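Protocol check, entry for the methods section draft. Step 1: assemble the input record (protein sequence plus ligand SMILES). Step 2: submit for complex structure prediction. Step 3: store the structure tokens unaltered in the notebook. Ligand used here: flavin-adenine dinucleotide. Step 1 record:
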Amino acid sequence: MSTNEEMQLIEAVREFAENNLNDPEYLEKFSPEMWEKIADFGLLGITVDEKYGGLGESYRTAAAVFENLGYSCKNNGFVFVVNNHIWVSQNLIYLYGSEQLKDKYLCDMTAGKRIGAICITEAESGSDALSMVTRAEKTDDGYILNGSKAFISNGPIADIFIVFARTGEGNNKSFTAFVVEKEFPGVKIGADIEKMGLGSCPTSEIVFDNCMIPKENVLGRYNFGSLIMTMALEWERCFEFVPHIGAMRRVMERCIEHVRSRQQFGRPIGDYQAVSHKIADMKVGIEMSRAMLDRIVDLKDNMKTAFIDTSIFKLYVSEAYIKTCRDAMQIFGGYGYTKEYDIERELRDALACSIYSGTNEMQKNTIYNFTTNGESL
Ligand SMILES: Cc1cc2nc3c(=O)[nH]c(=O)nc-3n(C[C@H](O)[C@H](O)[C@H](O)COP(=O)(O)OP(=O)(O)OC[C@H]3O[C@@H](n4cnc5c(N)ncnc54)[C@H](O)[C@@H]3O)c2cc1C
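Step 3, stored output:
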């Protein structure tokens, strides 16, 4: 895609999002109508081959588009739904699935007819994901899955789950990734869990009670689930955080408007360095995030690994995004604390990002281990 075409696509996405994805009625609950609209617009299959109903765009273009989606769609929860569907469900089937799995699921997913989710976390295994106890036993016809997964974003609305389960025998702790349909016998979807933010992205527990999985629904290879999980987290730590750069831009612009118009002591509050420096920090956060993203999309478009880069990116963007929203509330003073100004929702939504995709403490562990093992960036 030429730069000009990319600019046109970005412009179209911004206009579409501004006009169709900002219904105030759906800021705290999922909107099936908005989902239908974004599917019709064609965004769900942005990097997927046209053969499966996608647009076949590069990761660089996808990143530019998703930064702008995050900017123009202030419904952060809805963007999170879209991200979970694309990057850690559909994308995994597209990149690591067999031809059979791709034929079975991708067209429906790019068309938005089936929504995706990823199931890693369990009640007793969060950061220590590899200690999961959900287990799949091999049978003649396929696999029988037992266990339950916690905090599953899109859980109540999803049709397709990428589920990680232990499959190694005896002391072998190997596990496998499976594609599980909501309709498979033994799948039970929990009720929507109320959260502090991201209200328009439903979340639930998913229980697998003697769930029957056909043989062909192994994603990647049997007992190679850790590889798929590593790749999934890499995609998640990059692309789920790209829209946050756009959200930071949106919040920063609101702050700029406010510090220019709000007067105290006879002057715009932006004249006070304690206020203006907060906006300078926001700008630095946005530009540094973009610089890191530039390197990552280059690696991903060349199908290279970006594990440590995405870990650093996730850590940096989430800290910058939370600080931006926290500073925005301070800049807006008492008004920022009211529901009317919608800054408090931005902050509530932002706070989750230091937890999902692996907590920021876990990212620091990864970065430390990588650095002290003598690997160079
Ligand atoms: C909004 C949201 C959406 C989510 N969506 C999904 C989803 O779609 N699918 C899914 O599978 N999961 C999902 N999760 C779950 C998420 O991945 C986990 O919450 C996360 O990995 C942390 O696990 P935990 O909550 O059990 O916390 P714990 O692992 O219990 O951690 C608690 C605290 O201890 C710290 N800690 C733990 N171990 C260490 C260590 N070794 N070193 C330093 N600090 C440590 C953590 O950083 C954290 O601060 C979601 C979570 C949220 C909040």
